[in-house]
Amino acid sequence: MAIITVSRQIGSGGDEIAVRLAEELQFTLVDHALIVELLSAQDVSKSDVDTLDEGEFEGKQQQREQDRVYMDLLPTLIADLASKKNLVVLGRGGQCIFRGCPSALHVRVVASAKERARRLMDRRTIEEDFAVRLVEESDEARRRFIRYHYGEDIDDAVHYDLVVNTDRVSVGTATRLVQAAAELTDLMGKERGIERWLEAAQPHPFAHPSEAEFAKVLDFYRIRWEYEPKTFPLAWDDAGNATEAFSPDFYLVDFDLFIELTTLKQRLVTEKNRKIRRFRELYPEVALKVFYGRDYRNLLTKYGLAERGSSK
Fold it and tell me: What is the CATH number of the domain that holds 35?
């Protein structure tokens, strides 16, 4: 199916443009109301969704604990919906969720801070100082939201196929510009690309939750990695068949470095340590870094990803 993501600044008219696009193209609008509906079906309360509103995101500890709703659940729900319906995704990091998807068009709607403040004054009947502060606070909250959840800069134009400045372009004209871009890029003709993209974007079948958490740290810093890409034989029988092997958890492509996570209690790591010693004896030229329990937990705690009671 086809997807149009709309990232917008407060007062830019992006909300109105998204609504018009959905109505005129007969796409499903993924806005706050639909997100509440999707998450409610997963037993997530509306109050929890509201505290994570991107326009008011502060990145406080409470939000860090609740952000798993976004990191683990919401993108999956939206992607699943995209496999069934054509979507206009309003905010929520849609440009990051569907990054690289051939059947997605990413749009950014902006306007000058002065013009946006003027619009807020007119629509909400508020004083200029208050309107200016709302613009500044909303812009910073949205930057924090995308930076925290996806590790990206919301203002970086590289994330978008089309950036529309509504200082001199009306909502109607902006809507037609997006429709023209969708037509010129043959967006509807690429709608089957979502299926292949979703297959490629499926989460890795990690053997343990600790590996999934470590992968998030790597993704946050945009470190390229592969999961268990190679198995190293450690022992052989008389016929030359491998009877024992070792598969490091991760390979960091740009560092030519293998990573092994050993988060078991010390009394349980004896066998794994034996394998690691044997590996280093047989393959001294291969770089391997081992993360033991305390080091690993400290790393996850530092980035707000710690899991209580995990073992591997």
Answer: 3.40.50.300
